[in-house]
Design a protein that fits this description.
- The chain is an alpha/beta fold.
- The protein is globular.
- The protein has one domain: Response regulator (Rossmann fold, 3-Layer(aba) Sandwich).
- It has a four-stranded parallel beta sheet with strand order 2-1-3-4, with helices on both faces.
- The protein has five helices and four strands.
- About 40% of the residues lie in helices and about 15% in strands.
Length: about 160
């Protein structure tokens, strides 16, 4: 999928039902608004198997609806192919980062640049905390942080 586009990004978190589908949807809306969505392969995935096949968290969906950001995703786990087909793999926290780096070593041939999405945050909040055990307000914080980071990442790659 990603290889037919000129650029590609995979957003990753633990379960692929909160942070990464939010980042994916925000980035897709921004790329669409900038007239560049056709140039990007955009997806999200999980480091774990916990939520495979599930829809994004209801609180995340409500947050995105409130901000008029379309979100349609089914949770999946990151695959060996992702490491070769995506240019960037952007994750949410140190646990995701160490797991992705571990998988990249095991699977070899990884060409993806693995980074924290938060490394693009102009406010320097490098970790995007998992809102799963939190409140709607925690999802709002994730939304705001993902907006800042995705905008900076898009600008850095145009």
């Amino acid at each position: 999928m990603a290889s037919t586009n000129t650029k590609s990004v995979l957003f990753v978190c633990l379960g692929n039902i909160c942070r990464s589908p939010i980042a994916e949807a925000i980035f897709r809306k921004m790329a669409t608004g900038a007239g560049m969505v056709d140039k990007w392969g955009i997806d999200s995935a999980a480091t774990s198997t916990y939520e495979i096949g599930n829809s994004p968290d209801d609180r995340g969906q409500a947050c995105m609806k409130k901000h008029d950001v379309p979100m349609s995703h089914v949770a999946r786990q990151v695959t060996k192919e992702d490491f070769m087909s995506f240019e960037y793999i952007l994750c949410m926290d140190e646990n995701n980062l160490s797991e992705l780096n571990r998988k990249a070593k095991v699977w070899k041939n990884s060409t993806a640049k693995i980074e924290l999405l938060g490394s693009y945050d102009p406010q320097n909040q490098r970790i995007i905390k998992d809102p799963y055990y939190g409140s709607a307000e925690d999802f709002e914080k994730v939304y705001e942080q993902c907006c800042r980071c995705c905008q900076a990442f898009l600008e850095a790659n145009t």
